[in-house]
Fold this protein.
Amino acid sequence: MSVLIVGSTALDSIKTPKAENPRLLGGSASHAAIAASFFGPVKLVGVVGKDFPKRYIQLYQKHGIDLKGLQIQEGKTFHWSGEYELNMNNRRTLLTELGVFEKFTPHLPDVHKNSPFVLLANIAPALQHHVLDQMRRPKFVIADTMDLWLNIALEDLVRLLKRVDAFVLNDSEAHQLTKEDNVFAALRKIHQLGPKYVIIKKGSHGSVLSSPRGFFLCPAYPLHKVLDPTGAGDSFVGGLVGYLAHTKGNVDRNIRRAMIHGSVVASFCCEGFGVTRTTKVSAKDIDRRVRELEALVRF
Ligand code: AMP
């Protein structure tokens, strides 16, 4: 079954204590779509400007990503820049040039409206609503967000939670949303806002799922060296929804394995700048790390 992914498509300029890489392929939808593409067909909806490099279009195409929903508009592509501290965890935004992203309205081509699996990757909640308004009864909708929307669009976000099956956020966002320091208390409060599945990401400490079948603690793959964690969260949720869409059986049964697959794809993302490492991964590489993670948590 196909996956529809709507989110940001960007050029990212990333600074770490050791390196600087300008104008990489970035954006929540780019990372998520590439991650999901390892498991089956993906449709991407986003917007770029006329300055968007052709080689990035070719990279999407190499991953079999359907670009009928990618708008190419007069103007500049969304440009985001961030800098990491020595610990490669704390990040500050240096620059956000919205360009064509400022007036982005996601229009779904008619053939996309029947997609059974939908990932509302990180964009303004009002745009995430607009996507759902166009869909015809999707089977499973998962949404991601960021602290910015909790600050400036909380009402829209809370309304969105009543319309999605699953919601993914990181631990600091969960704290901001619920005022709870305890992850399990936060999970309970977020369920009360609507979603059946809630996943709280804890960076290199993995993630926690709360679902009708109870909790699941998903490990992060143990990496010795992180080059650039930008997009790891997007890769996690992209891998997760890609795996779910292309695996027989229901979501309840498959979501734990889906998280493990998302975690593995996210680990590759951290090993290179932008999508440079992720785009070189093979199905065998993914399987190997999935087996390693399985061995790590079995007891
Ligand atoms: P993450 O590392 O998971 O926080 O995601 C990083 C990605 O988010 C980068 O590739 C950015 O291009 C993208 N991004 C940054 N700011 C925004 C924003 N305001 N809306 C949507 N995407 C953004």
User: Anything to note?
Assistant: The mean pLDDT is 97.
